[in-house]
Design brief:
Blueprint: H1 2-27, H2 42-56, H3 60-70, H4 74-85, H5 91-104, H6 109-120, H7 124-137, H8 140-148, H9 150-165, H10 169-181
Length: 182
């Protein structure tokens, strides 16, 4: 009887361990780089992807750019995100890649791409919160250049007053400035 209890205990523990391992694998499934990609760093993946894009125009460049984004090379995030925007299946992928890049992007191209993406989709609330985040990360001059650009100006007028009322003082100054220039 003691032997049977040991077997039950062993099987139960093994079952728990396998469940935990499979759960971890499922949690990380979206962060994995495509299987065919063989590169060790974000920059290396980016270089290989760029070679595919420039020379052969093969679709493999996307896999390498995605891997590059996941491995920390932020410029790849905004560049490959654009490729996914045009397909309905790829919209969530584009948003995810822009978000990853924006979280760690030094030159903030991914942040601008994310705001642009939300504006094109008519997701004003998401655009507003991303914009406020962008303005906190970047100096006000770059932020205002972005707002004043012809493409975005009319979109920003829609949410700058709400951002201003919400306590984002820079939104207030930008909105007043836009109104004065009209």
């Amino acid at each position: 009887m003691d032997f049977n209890l040991k077997i039950i205990f062993f099987v139960t523990n093994l079952s728990i361990i396998l469940t935990i391992i499979s759960g971890c694998a499922l949690d990380n499934r979206e962060e994995k780089t495509p299987a065919a990609v063989q590169c060790s760093s974000g920059l290396e993946c980016y270089s290989i992807g760029k070679r595919y894009f420039n020379n052969e125009k093969s679709p493999e460049w996307r896999d390498y750019f995605i891997a590059s984004c996941y491995k920390g090379h932020s410029p790849a995030c905004s560049q490959v995100g654009i490729a996914f925007e045009d397909s309905t299946k790829g919209e969530s992928m584009a948003e995810k890649l822009y978000s990853i890049g924006c979280e760690r992007d030094e030159n903030l191209n991914s942040c601008i791409s994310l705001i642009h993406f939300y504006l094109k989709k008519g997701q004003i609330e998401n655009a507003k919160s991303s914009f406020i985040e962008f303005c906190h990360k970047e100096n006000e001059e770059k932020c205002s250049d972005f707002v004043y650009s012809k493409f975005y100006r009319d979109q920003f007028i829609k949410f700058l007053p709400d951002s201003c009322k919400g306590g984002h003082s820079y939104s207030c100054r930008l909105y007043e400035s836009i109104i004065k220039n009209d």
